[in-house]
């Protein structure tokens, strides 16, 4: 059991090191030795978990879905909003997530690593929430959840990319607030609008509350 | 004069070849010889115009602003809409534009090539138009043109990226129509909405009309 736990920890350490190296150098310039050095594990341990650089990249890309967890909220549309702000906040502090996003976005990442998969996974997660929001009468009757969700995922991707290019993501949360200010009036029933919280510091507040809850 | 014209043509041929090669292979894997072969020019001609791979990449990135020209329209918001659909359409058929977008988006492109510049240039062009739209009373009084424009540029970038990853951009125009359906109600005065044309085939129609006009 202790052995299994150690294996899980080693795998995690390798994944986090790989995420950081891919984030800084991209797929082509990353070498297994750079990951080894960063993770401080043996070559044997790395190859046991990941037989190739491509399998390592695939695992980093797949790690994206472990991010963006938010506490349940009575209003499902608020949960959708929260996910975007939480992921935005996590991008600032988590190199594994940044590496994962870079690999998915960079065209140089080899075709064996599925570029479309993260887009589909985010869209699936959000569609489930938005369909729930629709059932509960939170959305205008004209909204088609899948269309709205795919726009949100694409828009988020580009907005974080632009924030990275212009301000090293320092203004990402502000840009997300602008995104929601433009999209919410087209999807939410008007009575809901004043109560929805899509201010720039939403992600930081949600994460702080979660940490407090976990600590108590 | 003929000599100068020939130089301009040669430069253009090199640029288009470089755009296509960067689009297919990205910055790191592109070599000067690949561009030479594609452009069918001499090494001397290429180095005369572009002393390095980096200067070639910079010129390809800068070429972005030559795209997205649209005919003037009485409604300036319609011109903004038209620019997005025309660029979307041009992305399908023009390898120089695709290469330029890839270089700007890929993090592997060296820092000497300014990643932020294309974002700023598009934002400047669109802000000018949207401020004109505001002066003419086309926009809701709450709209801050620069915020809206930066959202549009970021959103367009991510939407085209997602379309590339999922359908090799085949559904890009549909995704742009969804984008506008979500954003227009938040920025245009209500009376304008029924008359604005943001249907998926808008880009193809604008370009066809332009070609017809040029041919007559």
From TrEMBL, chains A, B:
InterPro entries: ArpA-like, CprB_TetR_C, DNA-bd_HTH_TetR-type_CS, Homeodomain-like_sf, HTH-type_TetR-like_transc_reg, HTH_TetR, Tet_transcr_reg_TetR-rel_C_sf. PROSITE patterns: HTH_TETR_1 (PS01081), HTH_TETR_2 (PS50977). Pfam families: TetR_C_45, TetR_N. It comes from the Bacteria. Keywords: DNA-binding, Transcription, Transcription regulation. It comes from Streptomyces lasalocidi (Streptomyces lasaliensis). SUPFAM superfamilies: Homeodomain-like, Tetracyclin repressor-like, C-terminal domain. PANTHER family: HTH-TYPE TRANSCRIPTIONAL REGULATOR BETI (PTHR30055:SF234), HTH-TYPE TRANSCRIPTIONAL REGULATOR RUTR (PTHR30055). Residues 31-50 bind DNA. Residues 8-68 form the HTH tetR-type domain. This is TetR/AcrR family transcriptional regulator. Gene3D superfamilies: Tetracycline Repressor, domain 2 (1.10.357.10). GO terms for molecular function: DNA-binding transcription factor activity; transcription cis-regulatory region binding.
């Amino acid at each position: 059991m202790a052995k299994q736990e150690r294996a899980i920890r080693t795998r995690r350490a390798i994944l986090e090191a790989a995420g950081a190296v891919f984030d800084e150098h991209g797929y082509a310039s990353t070498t297994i030795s750079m990951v080894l050095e960063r993770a401080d594990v043996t070559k044997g341990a790395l190859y046991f978990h990941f037989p190739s650089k491509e399998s390592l990249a695939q695992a980093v890309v797949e790690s994206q879905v472990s991010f963006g967890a938010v506490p349940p909220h009575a209003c499902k549309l608020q949960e959708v909003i929260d996910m975007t702000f939480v992921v935005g906040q996590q991008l600032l502090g988590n190199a594994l997530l940044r590496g994962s996003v870079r690999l998915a976005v960079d065209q140089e990442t080899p075709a064996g690593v599925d570029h479309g998969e993260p887009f589909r996974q985010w869209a699936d997660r959000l569609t489930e929430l938005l369909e729930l929001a629709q059932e509960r009468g939170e959305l205008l009757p004209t909204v088609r959840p899948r269309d709205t969700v795919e726009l949100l995922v694409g828009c988020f991707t580009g907005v974080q990319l632009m924030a990275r290019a212009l301000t090293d993501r320092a203004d990402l949360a502000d840009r997300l607030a602008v995104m929601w200010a433009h999209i919410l009036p087209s999807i939410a029933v008007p009575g809901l609008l004043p109560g929805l919280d899509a201010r720039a510091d939403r992600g930081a507040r949600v994460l702080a509350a979660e940490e407090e809850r976990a600590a108590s």
